[in-house]
Design brief:
alpha+beta; 21 helices
């Protein structure tokens, strides 16, 4: 009896284990055209560059979103929701969504692709399951042919040509061939296109068909399809394009170069310069964290994932510069001017339109009381004051001036359907009702293609263009003493509205699974950058002669003044206000100069007028 009970308990534990653990993929698979990443690791892992840093290709790639493209639970949930809402277009959805998330399986399936269900690619019994789960893998990218369509509309959305000769294009012109031929049956060849942004455009310019309210196909040509994501075209219109003033490719940022051997075999291989690390760090720390924390259920290799999370977080923190240009009080009205500068080669954020950045501004007085606050986030990921978070049919407008705490500056792309309503269903998305994502430097909003155009109120905002956005906060100062200003730029990979819309379909296993994973996770957003300043109520400036100020403005550029000239201590303040001594006269002269001309530095700017304090950086 005991043995029987023990057997039952063991069976139950085994059942629970299998239900919570994915069946591991075989990364050593081969198909007609492709070979799994496990076949590459034997020679391309275990490598270090000349600085001693591990640059193992497959290990680095395994921690990326590319490697986990078909394991991504948000992608699977979104596919399930789209299939449920437009079941009659299942063939279109299955084909389009696997062209870039499971491209090897899609290519080998001859257009007959099913993702979900007992006979779908995600079913371990499917003959192409391993090819699907290997994501955007080595032998896919390295076999893309350098055709005339690469980097054009015909070559976007996963429409690439794959070699029938089992080749492996690389960045070096004189590869040693026989070793790879012997090991995996692929012939290494030089491919100049492997180092060009056009290669990345194959999937990172994606256009999708859309339907009307009756489910009828409303887009008729690739040109008319919805620009789901267009990072490549955004880059083309920046200073970082091949013809721009500061050319940099996608690979320059996402595959930074080092000096290393490119393989461990044979041991006589020379060290190569400009070897591209295969790390593919981006901005999706939230999804990488979710993959790590649910590794067993999702069959994710977590060996290097923490390192990629750290690199992605660092990339986020360097993507945008946030400055406090001025902070002042006059007649009990406070005014704060901020400037954001996009440092990246595409919009920020870019990619799938569930992503957003927003400004959180908090002003407190000397007693710690909140005087003004805009953009505070709730525990559920919603933002206080964001219209779209409280009502999915509404849009939070772009602002150049914020005067109320129920206004928030949110940089986002909001999809609209054929009837002009907000939609979160990709197959209903016909255009963007709002797109005020921060443009890259050099991007002129008045001279770009419609697919990447600025949409909504930002189009008429003179302070929003060419990678910059200037925004002003103006509010009544009800505080006591000095004011402390804190500005934060935050990033969210999945907006609250996108989640609430997706959760309407939590009766599907994929949405239910994702909801359970995401709601359990603590990390919902990232803070990209912070700027702080203090307005000292003790300092007062001489009244500004408006006529003199106009003359000064007409006289030429604003002179530059060091920060130290306005970060004075109380002793200097007393001396200046008392008017005695040479130091006092010099200080008065400096204050008058600043009042007339203002100041501008790389750290920020302040204009002294009325009752104005100092800014401390």
């Amino acid at each position: 009896m005991f043995a029987f009970t023990d057997h039952k308990a063991l069976s139950l534990l085994l059942f629970l284990f299998l239900s919570l653990t994915a069946i591991a993929e075989d990364t050593s698979f081969t198909t007609t055209h492709f070979s799994g990443s496990g076949n590459c690791s034997g020679c391309h892992d275990g490598m270090s560059d000349t600085l001693g840093e591990d640059v193992s290709i497959v290990q680095d790639w395994s921690a990326s979103m590319k490697a986990n493209a078909a394991k991504d639970p948000y992608w699977k949930a979104k596919v399930a929701a789209e299939l449920k809402r437009n079941a009659h277009l299942a063939d279109v959805i299955n084909d389009k969504c696997t062209q870039c998330h499971a491209p090897m399986a899609n290519y080998e399936s001859d257009g007959e692709t099913v993702i979900l269900g007992d006979r779908g690619l995600l079913d371990p019994s499917h003959p192409l399951h391993d090819a699907a789960m290997n994501g955007v893998s080595c032998s896919y990218c390295h076999q893309i042919e350098d055709t005339a369509s690469l980097g054009t509309l015909e070559g976007f959305s996963g429409e690439v040509e794959i070699s029938d000769e089992k080749v492996a294009y690389g960045q070096y012109s004189d590869p040693l061939q026989q070793q790879m031929i012997n090991q995996v049956g692929f012939t290494p060849l030089y491919g100049e296109h492997m180092s060009g942004s056009e290669l990345c455009a194959s999937c990172h310019n994606l256009k999708t068909p859309f339907v009307d309210a009756n489910g009828n196909l409303a887009s008729s040509t690739p040109e008319s399809e919805f620009p789901e994501q267009m990072p490549y075209t955004e880059w083309e219109n920046s200073i970082f394009s091949d013809t721009g003033s500061n050319p940099k490719s996608c690979q320059d940022c996402h595959m930074p170069a080092t000096t290393s051997r490119i393989s461990t075999r044979p041991s006589t291989l020379p060290v190569r310069e400009n070897f591209a690390k295969h790390r593919f760090s981006g901005a999706n720390t939230v999804m990488l964290t979710l993959l790590r924390d649910n590794a067993a259920a999702l069959d994710v290799d977590v060996a290097n994932i923490d390192a990629n999370i750290a690199r992605s977080r660092e990339m986020l923190q360097n993507a945008v510069k946030l400055e406090i240009l001025s902070a002042e009080i006059e007649d009990d009205e406070a005014e704060i001017r901020l400037r954001l500068t996009n440092n990246s080669g595409h919009k920020a954020p870019t990619g799938y339109p569930s992503r957003r950045m927003w400004l959180y501004l908090r002003v407190t007085d000397s007693d710690g009381q909140v005087v003004f606050e805009s953009g505070k986030i709730n525990e559920d990921g919603s933002i206080i004051g964001a219209d779209n978070d409280s009502d999915l049919s509404r849009i939070e407008s772009h602002h150049d001036l914020i005067t109320s705490d129920d206004q928030v500056q949110i940089y986002e792309a909001v999809m609209g359907d054929t009837d002009g309503n907000v939609t979160f269903t990709l197959l209903r998305a016909a255009n963007y009702l709002k797109d005020n994502r921060l443009t890259p430097p050099g991007f002129d909003k008045n001279r770009v293609p419609l697919d990447v155009a600025v949409q909504g109120a930002a189009l008429d905002d003179e302070g929003f263009n060419n990678g910059f956005d200037d925004i002003t906060y103006r509010f009544r100062n009800t505080g006591t003493g000095d004011l402390r200003v804190e500005a934060r730029l935050n990033y969210q990979a999945i907006t609250h509205g996108a989640l609430m819309d997706l959760y309407r379909d939590d009766d599907t296993p994929e949405v239910k699974d994702f909801k359970s994973m995401y709601d359990t996770q603590a990390l919902k957003f990232e803070t990209m950058t912070v700027a702080e300043a203090q307005i000292d109520s003790r300092l007062a400036a001489e009244p500004v002669d408006e006529s003199e100020e106009v003359q000064a403005d007409d006289a030429g550029p604003i002179p530059s003044v060091d920060k130290e000239s306005i970060t004075t201590d109380s002793a200097q303040t007393t001396s200046a206000s008392g008017g005695g001594g040479s130091i006092g006269w010099l200080w008065l002269l400096l204050l008058s100069f600043l009042a007339a001309f203002g100041r501008r530095t790389t750290g920020g700017a302040i204009r002294l007028s009325g009752r104005v304090g100092r800014v401390m950086y």
